[in-house]
Amino acid sequence: MSAVRQVRGTAGRRKRRLLWTALPAAVVLAASVKLLSLAPLGAAAEDAFGDGNAPALAAAADWLGILNLVEPYKADFARGDAYALRGDFEAARTSFETALRGAPESDGCRIRVNLALSIEKLGDARRNTDGVAAKAFYLDALAVIKAAPPGCFAAGGRGNADGEGKRLSEAGERLRAKTDEHGSKGNDDGDEQAGDPAAREQLERLEESERQAQEERRQSRERSEYLQDTGPGGQVERPW
């Protein structure tokens, strides 16, 4: 009997060992399936956006949110695109802002383009009915562009691989023109602005922020021109 119990005990321990050694294999298999599924989901999201298919894009975003624990910002980015396709730019703004907080700098440039455009659309929706609110949105969008790192504008850089720098610059010029338009109307919104000190103070802060952004862009251009003038043999340290 003791021999039988010994054999059974040995078999039981071997079975337990086999179960425990199977667990890492199962985890690896699950992780592999998960990683392999991300590329098709990303492609599906891109195709849905290209086709203007908001429901399909939202579904792909939801699956990315479940599966992509490594880069969760991509789900928020795709979700923002889906909202934008539906014309819900308030929800799109929220999703893009969430995505931007978790994205690396190179991917953040593309997110900034869509975030700035979504905020611009919110301003456009109020352009003819509430000039104060419209201008506040335009200045918010300009602040997003102002905060873009230099990599978003660098030729050949990862953050500018699809022309993000050009799109940000064009959006900035367009937004400044719209801001100036509302600032120079003198207009039907004048009484409303005069009667709302809080709104006027907010606009003044945003306008000052935009002036600082213009000065920083000017200094950045001067630095770039200086570095280019040194030639390939200059080897100067970056001053920032």
Taking pLDDT < 50 over at least 5 consecutive residues as the criterion, the unreliable ranges are 10-39, 65-70, 186-195, 225-240
Main sheet attributes: strand count, strand direction, barrel closure? none
Tell me, rounded to a whole number, the average pLDDT: 68
| Domain count | 2
Count of helices?
Answer: 9
Total beta-strand segments: 0
Q: What is the helix/strand order?
A: HHHHHHHHH
Structural class: mainly alpha
Terminal CA distance: 81 Å
Strand content: under 5%
InterPro entries: TPR-like_helical_dom_sf, TPR_rpt
Provide keyphrases for this structure.
single chain, 240 residues, mainly alpha, 2 domains, 9 helices, globular
Tell me the layout of helices and strands:
Blueprint: H1 2-50, H2 54-67, H3 73-86, H4 89-102, H5 105-125, H6 131-146, H7 164-183, H8 190-194, H9 197-229
Helix pairs in contact: 1-2, 2-3, 3-4, 4-5, 5-6, 5-7, 6-7, 6-9
Biased composition (Basic and acidic residues): 176-188, 198-226
InterPro entries: TPR-like_helical_dom_sf, TPR_rpt
Region (Disordered): 176-240
Structure characterization notes:
Residues 176-188, 198-226 have a biased composition (Basic and acidic residues). Residues 176-240 are annotated as: Disordered. InterPro entries: TPR-like_helical_dom_sf, TPR_rpt. With 240 residues, this protein is mainly alpha-helical. The protein has two domains: 32-103; 107-227, no CATH class. Helix content is 78%, strand content 0%. It is built from nine helices and no strands. It has helices spanning 2-50, 54-67, 73-86, 89-102, 105-125, 131-146, 164-183, 190-194, 197-229. The protein starts with a helix and ends in an 11-residue tail after the last helix. The model is unreliable at 10-39, 65-70, 186-195 and 225-240 (pLDDT under 50).
